[in-house]
Structures are given as C-alpha cells and as structure tokens.
Amino acid sequence: MNNRRLTTAFRTLALAAAASAIATPAMAADAVTDALQKAYVPYRTALFRTNSKAQAESEQAIAQARIELRQIQERFASKPPAPYDRDPAFDKTLQEVAAVLAQSETQIRDRQLAHAHETLEAVRDLLSGLRQRNGVVVFSDHMNAYHEQMETLLGSGAKLLDAPQGWQKLAAHTGTLQYLAARLRSQAPAALADDAEFKTGVQAVEASVNALTQAVFGQDAAAAREALGKLKGPYSRLFQKFG
User: Fold this and answer.
1) 108, 62 in Cβ contact below 8 A?
2) How does pLDDT run across 203-218, given as a tens digit for each residue?
3) What is the model's pTM?
4) Which of 216, 205, 225, 226 is CA-nearest to residue 169?
5) Alpha-carbon span 158 to 216, nearest angstrom
6) What confidence score (pLDDT) does residue 29 get?
7) Is the N end or the C end of the chain the one with fewer CB atoms within 10 Å?
8) How many CB atoms lie within 10 A of CB 92?
C-alpha cells in the first residue's frame, strides 16, 4: 500500500467523523452538570492514582469523590432541574455511580489498586451516558472519545502489523485518533484553550499521534510499535489535570 492510498484513508476517516459531529449539541451550563464536573475532579485523580499504584493518594481521592457525589444526590436526586428533569433514570444512574465508588473504595482499602482502577472506569461510562441521554456535552466527552479510540489502538494496533491488510486497518484507526486529537484542541472551552499547561498537554498528545501517523505512512513496523507504546502517557497526564 503506497503513501497516497494511506493519505486517502486518513482523509476519508476524518471527513466521516467531521460529518457525524455537525449535530453535536452545545455545551450546557446547569447546576447538575456543574456539580458533576466538580465531583469528576477527585474521580479523575482516583483513576490516575490507582493506575500509578499510589495508595494514600488513591484513598484521599476516592473519599473526596464519594463526598461530592453524596452532596449531588442530596441536592438533586429527588427533583433534578432541567435538562435532567425528564430523565426517569437520573436517580438510578447516580446510585450506580455511588455503588461503583463504594466498591472501588473497598478495593483501594484492601490495596487492590489495579482492580480498583478497572472498577472506576465504569463511572466514566455512566456519566457519559447520563449526559448523552439529556443532550449535554462537556469537554470530558471529547477526552472520553479519544480515550476509547486510543484503547482500541493499544489493544489491536501491534497485532495489525502482521495481519492481512494490517497497514490499511491501522491507517484507518490512526486517522480516527488524529481527528479526535484535533477535537481536544478545537472543542476546548476558552478557559482551557488559554491555559498554558493545557496547551502543552494537548501538544504532547498531538505529537504522540503524529509519531504514529508518520510510522504508518512509512510502513515502519518498529517505529509504529514504539509510537503505540507512547500514546498513553501524554493522554493520561492531560486527563488527570483537565479530562
């Protein structure tokens, strides 16, 4: 497969993704979403710290996340304001999030940090589903979309190098990741877009994707494997602070 065909594959994926994003609803600023985003900060820290095997920091973060969620339940569970007021599963979702946090806190206390990290991943999906049902978009959704595609590449990218039409498939996956990386910059709210640390973090994510893109263009298997191994670090650092 030549470079021209690989370039076409990237452009096709980017155009398709852009078309699907045209109808994306605007970011909302309501009391529930603001409170959930506030609770998301210690949740992100717990997710990051359990992954890095930091016991004390994980205990502190998960305790704070549970406090924040409990306050949200007390304020909004019985009668949420718009746009969540027509969602019959609103309270149930908060209960599910609370159960996940409680389970992960037990696992952290038992020093099962790897299991706690996997358990905590469910919160990301629960809150994303809650927002999606109610037409709410926040920057975390763009971070989550990138994360999902990145995990796909981390799980199957290296295997594609030895598979039939593997370069073509890897080009398609990498093109999607490249588009989602660009969205991290273009969809950032003004407060983030002007933040120097955020800019540095996004640049690092973009650089990691560009390294993979160049390896795919050159059909360099060794460089592709190296680039795949360097995707997670920049994203994790950006997620921990801004995701």
Assistant:
1) yes
2) 999 999 999 999 999 9
3) 0.78
4) 216
5) 12
6) 67
7) N
8) 13
